[in-house]
Amino acid sequence: MKIFGSHGITVLTLVLLAALLVLPVSGADDASATAAKPTISATVSSTDPIVGDTITLSGVATGSNLASGVQIWVFAGHYVNVTTVPVNADGTFSKTYQTTGLPPATYYVFVQSPGPDGVFNIDLIDTGIYSGQVVNTKTNTMIFNFTGVGSVQDAAASQALSDALNMPGQDDVYTKLTFQLTAPMAAATTPAAPATPAVPAATTAKSPLPVEVTAGALVISGCCAAFCMRKTH
Fold first, then answer.
1. pTM score > 0.85 for this model?
2. pLDDT class for 147, splitting at 50, 70, 90?
3. Is a pLDDT exceeding 70 seen at residue 102?
4. Given this model, what pLDDT does residue 2 score?
5. pLDDT higher for 124 or 19?
6. DSSP codes joined into one string, the chain
7. Which of 105, 108, 155, 219 is most deeply packed, by most CB within 10 A?
8. Which whole number is the average pLDDT over 224-228?
9. Integer Cα distance of 26 and 20 in angstroms
């Protein structure tokens, strides 16, 4: 009986030791996986700028591979601007834009960070005959087009880009926001004071003077004044 009991305790002890050895390793792997997942946040300096203002997009990105920086999409109507911005050592980034010459509109902004592979899985082709196409770089297939037949803009483009970045199989993360660019207001002017109606001068009724026209001059009998007429172009 004693021998049987000793073997039972030994087996149970070995099982418990094995479990304790496995659990910390599993927990470390989970922590590494969580730490490697990229995150991104961003803000815009003004949500209602006026044409001519400068605006700054800034934020913080974390993840396992930010060597490629982050990619900022700004679009409205037929205007599309996609820029890659470097990330500082502390994870911060910023980009300033000029709005002079841009049409007043609602502008959609996406800030995209690559996953652990450091590659933007969703990107814009801006050269050649395929200019304006948003593609999946892993499969080299077009997702939607900003220009040309069947193109989408504004809210529809925002939804299409969100759907693309949420597709299974790609590891990019993103955040999005908007700003409303408005036209500058006309300069305020002080309305002119209403003109005071002229008071006609008192006149004494007279008999009409005889009039005769001589050689293009209007001569009033009894006076020495003459009026020359000319046409102004």
1. no
2. confident
3. yes
4. 41
5. 124
6. -HHHHHHHHHHHHHHHHHHHHHHHHHHHHHHHHHHHS-EEEEEES-SS-BTT-EEEEEEEEESS--TT-EEEEEEETTEEEEEEE---TTSEEEEEEE-TTPPSEEEEEEEEE--TT---SEEEE-SGGGTTEEEETTTTEEEEESSSTT---HHHHHHHHHHHHTSTT---EEEEEEEEEBPPPPPP-PPPPPPPPPPPPP----PPPPEEEETTEEEETT---EE------
7. 108
8. 32
9. 10
Does residue 59 fall inside a structural domain?
yes
Domain containing 99 equals 39-181
Domain CATH number, residue 142: 2.60.40.10
Domain count, the chain: 1
Residue with tokens 């006026």: 50
pLDDT for 44: 97
Q: Is residue 4 part of a domain?
A: no
Residue 85 lies in a domain: yes
Residue with tokens 């299974």: 168
Contact 98, 142 (CB under 8 A): no
Chain mean pLDDT for the chain = 75
CA distance 112 to 104: 25
In a domain, 227, yes or no: no
Length of the chain: 233
d(CA 211, CA 209): 6
